Amino acid sequence: MRRVGIVMGSDSDLGIVQGAMETLRQLQIPYEVHVYSAHRTPDEAAAFAENAYQNGIGVLIAAAGKAAHLAGALAARTVLPVIGIPVSSKTLDGMDALLSTVQMPSGIPVATVAIDGAKNAAILAAQILAVEDPALHEKLSDQRKEMRETVIRKNADLQEKLNA
Hints:
It is globular and about 65 Å long. The N and C termini lie far apart (51 Å). It has two domains: 3-132, Rossmann fold (3-Layer(aba) Sandwich), CATH 3.40.50; 136-164. The protein has helices spanning 14-26, 42-51, 70-75, 95-102, 118-130, 134-162, and strands spanning 3-8, 31-35, 57-65, 82-87, 111-112. Helices cover 48% and strands 17% of the residues. Helix 4 (95-102) links the parallel strand 4 (82-87) and strand 5. It is α/β, with parallel strands linked by helices. Strands 2-1-3-4-5 form a five-stranded parallel beta sheet.
């Protein structure tokens, strides 16, 4: 199975990225995590993206706040799918990062999840990898069934409390 490459623009994004790491761990998907800045280490970020496929990576996740050029900078250097996680900040609550991540030019797409949406980034990465991995596809299907059962159980509990 190909790994997921997770890149943060700053180590201060680790608190957000941990949601993706935990989700990938639960799904038993191998991953690696790095700090590369689109602005402070552009050569290193570019080299990572350019070599990702040869190094066994199948999907990239990029987490960045404020100007949030990291996902786009990586996407410009690889044809692998790139998933952007806009990270919230004090200044504009992450709207700046969201817009910077989602507004990519034609031909260089970045799939973008919600602000601080690391768990969904990991699930989307898993779904991409599951196209070629029946066992992972089954894990994701089971996860959906469990979510459905949880909601049905919570509704039944609520109805019981309301009708008591």
